[in-house]
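STRUCTURE:
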């Protein structure tokens, strides 16, 4: 939805598609990726989506936001997630690995 033309708000209004960019090619690639169940095909389509966005310089990220987890000594299992994407929109399936000692 962040890249769909359906989520471009009117000028001066809230828009989930932040840059307000759209193209026929982008819409076609996204539509194909939504109905594809083949992981290799979906990966290829996603790569093409990224190439379309990058070719049109839709966003320029000027900084990165560092994230951290801070916990008491009795919280265990955090080392297992040290290399996983914490600040992404992906599901946090690693929560089941966290446990407390007495």
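SEQUENCE:
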């Amino acid at each position: 939805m962040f890249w769909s033309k359906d989520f471009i708000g009117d000028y001066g209004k809230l828009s989930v598609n932040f840059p307000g960019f759209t193209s026929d090619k982008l819409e076609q690639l996204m539509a194909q990726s939504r109905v594809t169940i083949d992981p290799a095909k979906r990966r290829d389509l996603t790569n093409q989506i990224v190439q379309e966005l990058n070719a049109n310089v839709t966003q320029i990220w000027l900084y990165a936001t560092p994230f951290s987890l801070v916990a008491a000594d009795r919280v265990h299992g955090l080392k297992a997630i040290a290399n996983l994407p914490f600040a992404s929109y992906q599901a946090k399936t690693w929560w089941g690995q966290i446990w407390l000692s007495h």
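REMARK: The beta strands are 75-76, 99-100.
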